[in-house]
Specification:
The structure is a homodimer of 451-residue chains. With 451 residues, the first copy, chain A, is an alpha/beta fold. Chain A is built from 16 helices and 16 strands. Chain A has an eight-stranded mixed β-sheet. In chain A, strands 5-6-7-8-9-10-11-12 form an eight-stranded parallel β-sheet.
Chain lengths: 451, 451
């Protein structure tokens, strides 16, 4: 008997973990939804996806995660964060943009942002994102070594962008070395962890000269990393670009050779039809951040037109000073509803499109479409489960409808990143979140005292 | 010693329950926030509100609920629901309005709405609302006896409106008796439970004739109950009113004598400045339902103008077919952000205004300002606690900012309604939610089969 069993199991594929649940949303090219499905993981990769019953015959798993009553889906991708700004969450709201930025956020940053505060506040952001189902985020801030260390410690996947501006910034008192400092950051972190990719984040066309932008983009090309920039976020930005360069920001960046498939632009609120066409042709990635754009009254980005034109758009939350949380489930909901009312058409921005934007769309915008964003064999094992057995998710007719219009980050039960269990039944596996919250509360009490 | 202690305690006010927490948001006329505060309850009423330390000297409580790490606030008021529509949650989304209503919702209602389905689906809605911090809701639907029974069973406070339309409706095949049936409903439920107030809900000016509206309003006056109606929700409604009555809906209702302090109108999306003035003068209550208005692309109600004009506005979710959840925390967030971007002014719709609208504002719109909506001695003991010790609520600079921009329904820890503990540490005290979810899943499987 024992010999027979051995022979039979020898024929089976051995995997490390089998996750079984009521539904698997694959977001493969057919957008298949598998009822009573399972995902098999081997190391940091997905080995197989299919029906639990047939997988059981072919696969032998060291461990099984029974997610009965749950939906299994790709982890969400937060395309735009300033993660360390969790320490300013709710510090100043409901203010005119200039007053908010110049009287509150900039002074608080100047006084309190250090590598240590960035480390703890990014760790808090990572915990918040993991708890709400984000498995990859794309960041940009100063003292970004602190963010990189937090990513390394937290188990989350991230693109970590060192900020560049042409004036003194936290950690870079001399702006003449801003690009050099960013390159040094890239060299410190490249190829150190497979989960962590360094990047350079030039703040905007109005805070970075053409020379700075060109130099920073050259470094990104040399090291094959992502270049990031805020683009066409506000009316004031357009006016300033017109005044300084005699053209709108999209044209300006295009002329400088910045817009290509290895660049990610944030917001694109104020882009016209011609510019949308240019964005599509260039292959550039765009982050759509509806809640931040609403809260700061920046405007409504033309998302439906961008999607129709084939622009690679993903979803972001922006920093916690302008949202004020990092829950992408809520961001999907807001995006879906905002564009319907803005265009007067309830059929726009469908639930399926929004989930696709927050997973596969984000991966494509990052140039990581082969690595994350869907549950397919060979991709990185980044997945989450959603607990469907809750009053506000009952009954269920269509999974994507629930993910967008009814679910919230708190409905995420388990999180696996890079094949590693990071959250199990809403308990973080390794991180001490009480310690992390305590550290950020200490930072906040200093900010409160000197603000 | 024991004698001394007895004498001392004899001098103290005896209460049933003392709830202590890190902050008490009173929403009294000074909007006082008490740090390290407490609320004392006696029977179904609030006996005292103050600092926990000084309350301890004056009050002897049979029981203490220690909500350390939590914020205590008035329960939220959901001003507009069709609670039983939880059974259609996500049945049909992202469709043009006419197709959604006529090909999906109306046929499903005709085939599946009975007193029993209304009972279970309203019970599910009540559980969902309790879990997300709503302690009072204002409903309108058919077979509303089912809703009233669910309210009685759930422990929640509600205004329960029997629906009236001039065509055959669930439970009222003969529209000639629609108003009589509503009156019979009122008589069955009036003064039966202090938590439950019957109401008459005339659907709209385009589904109810002037005669029906006048007769229904007369009954409401006679029985001193709330009259409800959808008002100026869509452009089509305006066109139809112009065509039939040669005037806009507000003027039409004003002429019929419908608009007074005992009437609650839902939506008021398409009202001009003159009409806003008329709404303010009439003392009528208005429910603002931003997420439903966005999802159905109905438009953006002029909330900031209504608030400035002194219109009594509260917040609602509308039914689950057009939202698709009943989380008022999310609704506050959406309302705050929507009006900022819509008007291009980030200082509009502040966090404090939004929380006030979801508590005190709702109470005023219902004519219940003396009963609920704030934590003040003599008012009904309807309160909730929010667990602040969570990553997405860390750090905290300003409580209302967190309630609107960072918190979600899932952050509600305890719920007390009418002095009774309904949810304790996220566990429902009396209701069996697995049974309730199971019953609604059965209803949904029938809907799925015949839809």
């Amino acid at each position: 008997m024992s010999e027979v069993r051995d022979r039979r199991s020898a024929e089976k594929t051995r995997v490390d973990l089998l996750v079984t649940g009521d539904y698997v949303l694959t977001f493969n090219h057919k957008k298949e939804v598998v009822e009573k499905g399972a995902v098999a993981l081997k190391g940091d990769r997905i080995a197989a996806v299919g029906q639990a019953s047939s997988m059981g015959e072919k696969i032998e798993a060291k461990e099984v995660l029974d997610a009965s009553g749950c939906l299994i889906m790709p982890g969400l991708i937060n395309l735009h964060t300033h993660a360390a700004m969790t320490c300013f969450r709710g510090l100043a709201d409901d203010l005119p943009l200039h007053e908010w930025l110049h009287e509150h956020i900039f002074p608080a940053e100047a006084a309190h942002i250090t590598e240590e505060t960035v480390y703890w506040a990014t760790l808090l952001a990572s915990v918040e994102m993991i708890r709400s189902g984000t498995t990859t985020f794309c960041d940009g801030y100063f003292y970004e070594d602190g963010a990189a260390k937090a990513v390394a410690a937290s188990g989350i996947r991230a693109i970590v962008g060192q900020g560049v501006v042409d004036f003194p910034a936290p950690g870079i008192p001399d702006p003449r070395i801003n690009v050099k400092a960013a390159e040094a950051f890239v060299l410190r972190w490249q190829n150190k962890y497979s989960r962590l990719m360094p990047s350079v984040f030039c703040h905007s066309v109005y805070t970075c000269s053409p020379e700075t932008l060109i130099a920073a983009k050259a470094i990104c090309k040399e090291h094959k990393i992502l270049f990031q920039i805020h683009l066409a976020e506000t009316e004031a930005e357009l006016e300033e670009a017109e005044q300084r360069y005699g053209m709108r920001p999209v044209e300006h960046l295009l002329k400088l050779g910045i817009l290509d498939a290895d660049t990610l632009c944030h917001h694109a609120v104020r882009v016209n039809e011609k510019e949308i066409e240019l964005l599509a042709q260039s292959g550039v990635g765009i982050s759509h951040n509806p809640e931040s754009n609403m809260k700061l009254a920046s405007g409504v980005a033309p998302l439906p037109k961008m999607l129709t034109a084939g622009v690679k758009v993903g979803l972001g939350t922006d920093g916690c000073a302008s949202n004020n949380n990092m829950d992408l489930f809520q961001e999907m909901d807001t995006a879906a509803k905002l564009h319907k009312v803005h265009q007067g058409d309830p059929s726009l921005s469908s639930a399926v499109e929004m989930v696709e934007m927050a997973t596969k769309g984000g991966a494509a915008a990052l140039g990581m479409a082969d690595i994350v964003g869907s549950l397919e064999p060979g991709k990185k094992a980044d997945l989450i489960t959603i607990d469907l057995n809750q009053p506000h998710l009952t009954p269920m007719y269509e999974p994507c409808s629930h993910l967008v219009y009814a679910a919230r980050g708190a409905d995420v039960r388990d999180v696996i990143i890079d094949g590693r269990m990071v959250m199990l039944k809403r308990q973080l596996v390794e991180m001490d979140e009480q310690e992390i919250m305590g550290k950020v509360r200490e930072i906040a009490s200093r900010i409160r005292g000197r603000h």
